[in-house]
């Protein structure tokens, strides 16, 4: 059976490639999705890739992931630092949940250093740029008992 992984992206990530490229790089979210879908196929995972600027929609998707018994890779973006409702929805997830940030939030100013989501995430990946998504998917495969072939 193929495991289902939701890759959920929060606010402003639809602007990747154009928004603050000195921080976030020039790779677009569409390019990241293509790379994720290709890697997911190789890892025998099903990948549901989504982005929203709406806190309510993100909460709905987390609840949907819970209902479908899916693992989650979550880049909550700005929702990381002050959204208790997103945190509460994350707490529903029973499968592994990896929090992902493109930048190293610990090197940024105080506003971006303390993610609420980190308190309950299985693991946190930050500071690897767009490649962090691929690292997160490989880590998820291992968390789900699959051993990726890196050769």
From TrEMBL:
Residue positions of the active site: 24, 101
Catalytic activity from the UniProt record: 3-dehydroquinate = 3-dehydroshikimate + H2O
Entry superkingdom: Bacteria
Positions bearing the site annotation: Transition state stabilizer: 19
Xref: Pfam families: DHquinase_II
Top EC category: lyase
Amino acids binding substrate: 75, 88, 102-103
Residue stretches spanning the membrane: none
CDD domains: DHQase_II
Pathway: Metabolic intermediate biosynthesis; chorismate biosynthesis; chorismate from D-erythrose 4-phosphate and phosphoenolpyruvate: step 3/7
Entry keyword set: Amino-acid biosynthesis, Aromatic amino acid biosynthesis, Lyase
NCBIfam families listed in its UniProt record: PRK05395.1-2, PRK05395.1-3, PRK05395.1-4
UniProt xrefs under HAMAP family: AroQ
Function: Catalyzes a trans-dehydration via an enolate intermediate.
Family label: Belongs to the type-II 3-dehydroquinase family.
Oligomeric form and interacting partners: Homododecamer.
Record protein name field: 3-dehydroquinate dehydratase
UniProt source species: Paraburkholderia sejongensis
Lineage: Bacteria, Pseudomonadati, Pseudomonadota, Betaproteobacteria, Burkholderiales
């Amino acid at each position: 059976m193929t495991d289902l992984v939701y890759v959920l992206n929060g606010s402003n990530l639809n602007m990747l490639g154009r928004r603050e490229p000195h921080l976030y790089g020039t790779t677009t979210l569409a390019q990241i999705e293509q790379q994720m879908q290709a890697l997911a196929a190789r890892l025998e995972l099903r990948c549901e890739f989504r982005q929203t600027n709406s806190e309510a929609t993100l909460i709905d998707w987390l609840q949907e992931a819970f209902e479908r018994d899916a693992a989650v890779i979550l880049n909550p973006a700005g929702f990381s630092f002050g959204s208790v409702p997103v945190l509460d929805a994350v707490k529903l997830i029973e499968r592994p949940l990896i929090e992902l940030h493109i930048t190293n939030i610990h090197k940024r100013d105080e506003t971006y250093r303390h993610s609420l989501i980190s308190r309950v995430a299985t693991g946190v990946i930050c500071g690897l740029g767009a490649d962090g998504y691929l690292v997160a998917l490989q880590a998820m495969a291992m968390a789900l008992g699959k051993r990726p072939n890196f050769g």
